[in-house]
Design a protein that fits this description.
heterodimer, A: 110 residues, mainly beta, 5-stranded mixed sheet, 4-stranded antiparallel sheet, B: 114 residues, 7-stranded mixed sheet, 11 strands
Amino acid sequence: DAKTTQPTSMDCAEGRAANLPCNHSTISGNEYVYWYRQIHSQGPQYIIHGLKNNETNEMASLIITEDRKSSTLILPHATLRDTAVYYCIVRALYGNKLVFGAGTILRVKS
Amino acid sequence: NAGVTQTPKFQVLKTGQSMTLQCAQDMNHNSMYWYRQDPGMGLRLIYYSASEGTTDKGEVPNGYNVSRLNKREFSLRLESAAPSQTSVYFCASSELSGADTEAFFGQGTRLTVV
């Protein structure tokens, strides 16, 4: 599975959009981009995933560049409860492993 | 629907003791995973089982063994616990393939080895 690079930490004002970038320049054609988050010391929670088209669900939007080498997770109206570590993972559709990197610490501030 | 259940939630061991961490999922998933998370660090994959009857090493398998008892259950064993194994252990499950392969995680087992 391709490696991902994320900023170590980011701050966001409450009520504003949080845009979390992820680089995955070695992604291959059959690999999806997944996002998870981990609030405090709970188990990680799935957010969204996509292959090449932009995706949106009730939690977030995922924007994938045309060349698929990077993506951005967007939380449209961040709240204090969105403070968490956000992990970007690249995984093959039929891949077995699920390997996490260091993630981005997002701090939402009032 | 319980999802992924881990037992115990907390455990203190003495160096050299053995124990088994239990994990069960009720989503009929094929794949299951064990991770450890040290303070301030990300999750590291210990072992995974792509499907019933198979297990494979992850990033940090040394000092651990696993058993995929059946499709529902995947246990992690520490044969001789060491202080370096003090960590939070997470179990997860997912489908093996297809578009809906998001993983579901348990709430963790907090292990301290003294």
